[in-house]
Design brief:
Strand content: 15-25%
Oligomer: single chain
Shape: globular
Helix content: 40-55%
Order of helices and strands: HHHHHEEHHEHEEEHHEHEEEH
Structural class: alpha+beta
Distance between the termini: 16 Å
Radius of gyration: 26 Å
Length: 374
């Protein structure tokens, strides 16, 4: 049918476009697919597939029924993953051109009208500001942490394996089991003090202790590539004592009393708040479960202007925080409209990306001979 032929042509054009971008990425000498990262992702993919089949034996049996050997299937996945990585890296590099893509208001309106039914209703939401009070470790705790990080760094400098030291001593629960591995990151992904050292450290060198709001870090850069580094770190934190925790709880109660008395929350954020914690937040009701325990229930029952807290919670393992909240607005569920700035921005970005992709494909098609045989 005509509809089937039209779909066939659309899919074919999409496949040609993907191959043009992959070929352009292969010609770009600044785009490099790290084989070690590729192999790691393929291994994880295969493990997940085997788990979904109930184990390696069942998975290999299913592959055999489809005519695959494990080695051939792994190579097939490697080829797919390499092309996907090349495509992604090329489009990420060209993303800087998004600022040159003009989107008219009429285009945003047309997209919204065409997708209105698919977009559906905006769920109920709550918007609030918070003052997050952090227990401050005593001077003795800070001195003990500095002594510990100096001791660990000396072990690393004297030749002990950095990965093993991270597993033994790092207090970062996310990276310690992986030998302190933070993966690849760019500027803007980490706090400034950490990045300043990481991006100026030669591969293989071990940094002096670096202090950030998270604690004291020892950094080792494994590899570098254009605009990115792959590093490991060992984190040592100064643990607040029970007395420190109690003082923080008292400060949070003081914040609550001042809010109740009418002191502007912005003033209290500046005086008492954790500069690393976001002060203004908006959550849909179905997203409140993403917040730490203790937040969701009072926010679900809240009303505009209400003061909530202090709420005690753990930001990281064993590290308590105290939050005092002022509810700014509670919105009932309603249809989305273009007056919602979040939706407006998402539609604009979606159209920008589509236009940029069209522009890139026009450039590549103009320079590439494409022959289709059917």
């Amino acid at each position: 049918s005509e509809a089937f032929l039209r779909l066939q042509r659309e899919l074919l054009n999409q496949m040609v476009g993907e191959q043009l971008i992959v070929q352009a990425a292969l010609r770009d000498t600044t785009i490099i697919v790290e084989e070690a990262d590729l192999e790691e992702s393929i291994t994880q993919d295969l493990q997940q597939r085997a788990q979904s089949f109930g184990g390696q034996a069942a998975f290999q049996q299913a592959l055999a029924q489809q005519g695959w050997t494990p080695a051939a299937y792994r190579e097939f996945l490697r080829g797919q993953a390499r092309q996907q990585r090349l495509y992604s890296l090329f489009m990420s590099k060209r993303a800087r051109d998004l600022t040159t893509v003009v989107v008219e208001s009429s285009e945003i309106e047309a997209f919204f009208e065409a997708q209105r039914n698919a977009i559906g209703q905006r769920p109920p939401s709550v918007r609030f500001k918070q003052v997050v009070v952090v227990p401050t470790p005593s001077d003795s705790s800070l001195q003990a942490a500095r002594a510990e990080v100096d001791r660990i760094r000396q072990l690393a400098v004297e030749g002990e394996d950095f990965e093993e030291l991270a597993r033994r001593f790092s207090q970062d629960p996310g990276s310690a089991p992986n030998g302190g591995d933070l993966g690849w990151f760019r500027r803007g992904d980490m706090v400034p003090a950490f990045e300043e050292v990481a991006f100026n450290l030669i591969a293989g060198a071990i940094s002096e202790p670096v202090q950030t709001p998270f604690g004291l870090h020892i950094i080792k850069v494994d590899r570098r590539r254009s605009g990115e580094v792959r590093a490991r770190h060992i984190l040592v934190t100064a643990e607040p004592s029970a007395a420190d925790q109690e003082r923080a709880a008292e400060r949070a109660a003081e914040v609550k009393a001042k809010l109740d008395a009418g002191v502007p929350i912005e003033e209290l954020i500046r005086e008492y708040g954790d500069p690393e914690a976001p002060d203004s937040l908006e959550y849909q009701f179905d997203q409140l479960k993403e917040l730490p325990p203790g937040f969701a229930e009072p926010l679900l029952q809240s009303r505009e202007g209400q003061i909530i807290g202090p709420i005690a919670y753990e930001a990281r393992a064993g590290q308590s925080r105290f939050a005092v909240i002022k509810v700014l607005a509670v919105q009932e569920g309603r249809p989305w409209s273009l007056e919602d700035t979040e939706l407006h921005a998402q539609i604009r970005q979606r159209i920008q990306q589509e236009k940029l992709q069209e522009r890139i494909l026009e450039e590549l098609r103009a320079k590439t001979y494409v022959q289709i045989r059917m």
